[in-house]
Amino acid sequence: MLVADPLFDTVLRSLILAAIALSWVTVLIRITGLRSLSKMTSFDFVMTIALGSLVATGAMVTKWLDFLQALIAMAALFLAQFTASRLRKSSEMVETAIQNEPILLMKDGEFRRDAMDTTRVTESDIIAKLREANVLDFSEVRAVVLETTGDVSVLHGDALDDALLEGVRNTD
Fold it and tell me: Model-level pTM?
């Protein structure tokens, strides 16, 4: 008589469920497009984190019904993100509610202390980003922008096109 090894069964089940969950996410991305995994807005970022959590949880559940619920929740996340992106395009009020506004942290080599206080970004945070952008002197910096995603953009060089700061708060 053959006796099943519970550890082997658990590992095999986890591998199979993880493969199914990842395949399902791939199908959903192919249907909705790569925009689903972007982090253009804080809403998109939360979507990506929640999706990762569901994939991880889905591979660890012990009941098929729980796994099916995780797959349905993944599809619901994609639907919510798709709906939110459509609503953002059609309504400025929704756009304002969902998306953060980019904010200017540095302009022409000068720190914007009020914006730094508001966003809780320190001078050392900005200096680290300047190093990443290969800035050699503060006078090279035209602008540092905290983007809607939380990323920091460093614009440096000879001149700055005003269009690059369109929609950025604290540019006066």
Answer: 0.65
